[in-house]
């Protein structure tokens, strides 16, 4: 299944990327580029919507981690939402679900992973 | 003889025979000898307006020699006098000893250092005329052109054959094989010494087309002086003793008295080797020969340099690769290990999965299996770092949870420096043998797939181990679980290459944990190595396509009391004294 990234504006002004398809070694660069594009545009709070994502391997997770590291360096964060099925399972097993959990309108998620 | 005779005899235009009218010599028998001291006069009945054709003929580029029917020279034109000083009027032409004029077979020949061509034209009265032309210059030019073409063709073949050889031995053999016979009867390539030994390849001209190639090695100190000079980049000029030296060194057996040259093969800094060429038949190497040898060695040097560079890089890669391969777990009391490892890029032999074990001072073992994000060399390099970290850190910290946090800190430094979002997932445990032959496993989870346990009943349990991947956050949550293995029970650690293998009937279905559990149910009697192999096998059977993720499996089986006893029998040949045995157990 082909991978796609689409940009959605959020109500709170942040950016949301909606991922669809399979995120692996071949599609990871596309997501990387999309995140880099947001970062370059000054966006520091990036939410990835994984509702339509059907597969994610370690390369894909590495893109999440890298994106969060970049955003954190600029005082922001990258968070995940909507994961289910295989994607939810792999995020849960690796503990990444916990690291990158999106908690709207509660505490600022950046405070949890900040060193 | 008159002009009319000529006309009568020659049915042509009555003036001169043309080359195409050459007749067979048999004609002379048809006519009686008709000696005359005079030249055939130019036909005078052509009219007064006709030029004096004879005078014209005298100035042809071709020289003329006219003989009478008895073969005596009657006329020699000025050009012929110059070309054939030995030909004298009034004497037999055959007595002059000019090779090309002795019979009717016209053609090219050498005479007094010139290249001449001659053709014979019959005249009336059984006389004949020889037309002789000096073709030294044009033949020389044609020869030079042919030689140049041959050289170019040779060098083109050389370039083609040497092409892009990636194996230095094959390149070296190709170099000497190509040098024979064009450059030498025997060609020896001596490579620049490596660790004091200089390897050589030699091609000798054989009776059939293909030269014989052999090879050997010489101590650097035994190399002939000219060869040693050549290896420093100097093309030796004084080659007086070259052949003798080369014969002494065993490089040119049975070639005493031959001509030889040594030409370096240019390398990156210093010559990559030298080419020693020798020949007897065609003699000394002239400047054109040496030029050709230099052009040859330039190509050969480039090919060999590439091949050697490739070999060096391949050696480096092999060494690094070997250092990145998982090391088999260290033998430990009460534990039977089983492993399987299949990198995604099989040709690379390394990947992002890793496993290993280290013995602890207290008799236990620390063991681990993990997976670095990404694939190939970059991932493998990080696995190497992790394994080395663990090798050092387990000496300071043997508690799995704390060891995993230390590892996280070490990895975090690396991953953040690289900024590529790299991380690892890992299961890290310590196995301690129990008196009943079982094992106690203390497991720490770093975001990796939880291990499976094969119980003695045949059931397969998933260990409820949680935790967070390492190398991402400074203070990861590390899950810890203790598992008891009774004798004969096995704990299985595996990477997601097993459960995420895609195949099945539809071709893209994941193998999944449930199928793995099913496949292992009832396998409780299998030794650990067989079990690990089975997991690899069923995974590969499931795969629909050739490509897959890295696959790693580590199985530990509690060997039970029998395993421990057999160890004692091996390590203590005499009946053990109880105190000593106590110490060994502790």
UniProtKB/TrEMBL annotation, chain A:
<dbReference type="InterPro" id="IPR036513">
    <property type="entry name" value="STAS_dom_sf"/>
</dbReference>
<dbReference type="InterPro" id="IPR058548">
    <property type="entry name" value="MlaB-like_STAS"/>
</dbReference>
<protein>
    <recommendedName>
        <fullName>Anti-sigma factor antagonist</fullName>
    </recommendedName>
</protein>
<dbReference type="GO" id="GO:0043856">
    <property type="term" value="F:anti-sigma factor antagonist activity"/>
</dbReference>
<dbReference type="InterPro" id="IPR002645">
    <property type="entry name" value="STAS_dom"/>
</dbReference>
<dbReference type="Pfam" id="PF13466">
    <property type="entry name" value="STAS_2"/>
</dbReference>
<comment type="similarity">
    <text>Belongs to the anti-sigma-factor antagonist family.</text>
</comment>
<dbReference type="InterPro" id="IPR003658">
    <property type="entry name" value="Anti-sigma_ant"/>
</dbReference>
<feature type="domain" description="STAS">
    <location>
        <begin position="4"/>
        <end position="115"/>
    </location>
</feature>
Automatic annotation (TrEMBL), chain B:
<dbReference type="InterPro" id="IPR036457">
    <property type="entry name" value="PPM-type-like_dom_sf"/>
</dbReference>
<feature type="domain" description="PPM-type phosphatase">
    <location>
        <begin position="335"/>
        <end position="558"/>
    </location>
</feature>
<feature type="compositionally biased region" description="Pro residues">
    <location>
        <begin position="32"/>
        <end position="43"/>
    </location>
</feature>
<dbReference type="GO" id="GO:0016791">
    <property type="term" value="F:phosphatase activity"/>
</dbReference>
<feature type="compositionally biased region" description="Basic and acidic residues">
    <location>
        <begin position="1"/>
        <end position="16"/>
    </location>
</feature>
<protein>
    <submittedName>
        <fullName>Serine/threonine-protein phosphatase</fullName>
    </submittedName>
</protein>
<dbReference type="InterPro" id="IPR052016">
    <property type="entry name" value="Bact_Sigma-Reg"/>
</dbReference>
<feature type="region of interest" description="Disordered">
    <location>
        <begin position="1"/>
        <end position="47"/>
    </location>
</feature>
<feature type="region of interest" description="Disordered">
    <location>
        <begin position="562"/>
        <end position="586"/>
    </location>
</feature>
<dbReference type="InterPro" id="IPR001932">
    <property type="entry name" value="PPM-type_phosphatase-like_dom"/>
</dbReference>
<keyword id="KW-0378">Hydrolase</keyword>
<dbReference type="InterPro" id="IPR029016">
    <property type="entry name" value="GAF-like_dom_sf"/>
</dbReference>
<dbReference type="Pfam" id="PF07228">
    <property type="entry name" value="SpoIIE"/>
</dbReference>
